């Protein structure tokens, strides 16, 4: 088998340049990782990220198959394309990991997050908070004479936008679940 030589100075767009070219732009990717539900698996997955200095922007974990003892870890991370590829490869090498899917590149997906927002205020601010909650279709799940707790489900951008609008109205505290995501379609 003859070795392929790449001519010095050859264009990176040449059909003979077999090395992948990666961008230097950081991208956000949503990874779905199916793992065996056993003690220590989450620590091993998180250890992969922390040990190499990768950041996790969102993390959700739940058992998805009680009889098969399988859990799904949804991770939103950010990095240059070559870092994302390294993460996926290294995740796939962890023994209790069954599957790694990059929902960002595999096709259309649906992402949702749940947020709880405690907003304290009186008078006009209280009325405005209720008006905005109605526009965003947020539910009031607790109320006192001084505060509300709103529940909002939607894309992470919607959760961010609601929080930004509630800050000047007396946003006291926010709790977020992290992203849950599924690929669209029958597969």
TrEMBL record:
Its EC number is 2.2.1.6. The keyword Magnesium does not apply. Coiled coil: none annotated. It catalyses: 2 pyruvate + H(+) = (2S)-2-acetolactate + CO2. The keyword Amino-acid biosynthesis applies. GO terms for biological process: isoleucine biosynthetic process; L-valine biosynthetic process. Residues 30-105 form the ACT domain. It holds the Pfam family ACT_AHAS_ss. Keywords: Amino-acid biosynthesis, Branched-chain amino acid biosynthesis, Transferase. PROSITE patterns: ACT (PS51671). Catalyzes the conversion of 2 pyruvate molecules into acetolactate in the first common step of the biosynthetic pathway of the branched-amino acids such as leucine, isoleucine, and valine. Dimer of large and small chains. Belongs to the acetolactate synthase small subunit family. This is Acetolactate synthase small subunit. It comes from Cognatishimia activa.
């Amino acid at each position: 088998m003859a070795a392929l030589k790449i001519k010095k100075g050859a264009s990176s767009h040449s059909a003979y340049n077999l090395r992948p070219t990666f961008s230097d732009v950081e991208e956000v990717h949503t990874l779905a990782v199916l793992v065996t539900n056993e003690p220590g698996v989450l620590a091993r997955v998180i250890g992969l990220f922390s040990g190499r200095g990768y950041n996790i922007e969102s993390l959700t974990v739940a058992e998805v198959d009680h009889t098969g003892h399988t859990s799904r870890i949804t991770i939103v991370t950010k990095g240059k394309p070559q870092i994302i590829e390294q993460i996926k490869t290294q995740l796939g090498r962890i023994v209790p990991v069954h599957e790694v899917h990059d929902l960002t590149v595999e096709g259309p997906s649906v992402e949702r997050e749940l947020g709880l927002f405690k907003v304290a205020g009186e008078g006009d601010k209280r009325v405005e908070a209720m008006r905005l909650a109605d526009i965003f279709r947020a539910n009031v799940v607790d109320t006192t004479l001084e505060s509300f707790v709103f529940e909002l489900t939607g894309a992470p951008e919607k959760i961010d936008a609601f929080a930004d609008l509630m800050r000047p109205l007396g946003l006291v505290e926010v709790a977020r679940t992290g992203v849950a995501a599924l690929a669209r379609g029958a597969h």
